[in-house]
Amino acid sequence: MSRKASDNVEYTLRSLSNLMGEKKRRKQQQEEAAAAAGERSLIASAESCTSINSQSTGAGDLERAARKQFQQDVTPAFVYVVSVFSALGGFLFGYDTGVVSGAMLLLKREMNLSALWQELLVSSTVGAAALSALAGGVLNGVLGRRPCILMASLLFTAGAVILAAARDKETLLGGRVVVGLGIGIASMTVPVYIAEAAPPHLRGRLVTINTLFITGGQFSAAVVDGAFSYLARDGWRYMLGLSAVPAVLQFLGFLFLPESPRWLIQKGQTQKARRVLSQIRGNQTIDEEYDSIKNSIDEEEKEGATGGPIIYRMLIYPPTRRALIVGCGLQMFQQLAGINTVMYYSATILQMSGVDDDRLAIWLAAVTAFTNFSFTLLGVWLVEKLGRRKLTLGSLTGTTVALFVLALGFLLSAQVSPPVTFTPGDPSGPNSTCTQYSYCNKCMLDPNCGFCYKKNGSSIVDSSCIPVNTESTDRAAWGRCMNETKSKAGGSIWAYNYCPTSYSWTALLGLILYLVFFAPGMGPMPWTVNSEIYPLWARSTGNACSSGVNWICNVLISLTFLHTAEYLTYYGAFFLYAGLACVGLIFIYGCLPETKGKKLEEIESLFESRLCTCGASDSDEGRYIEYIRVKGSNYHLSDNDASDVE
Ligand SMILES: O[C@H]1[C@H](O)[C@@H](O)[C@H](O)[C@@H](O)[C@H]1O
Question: DSSP secondary-structure letter at 476?
Answer without folding.
Answer: B
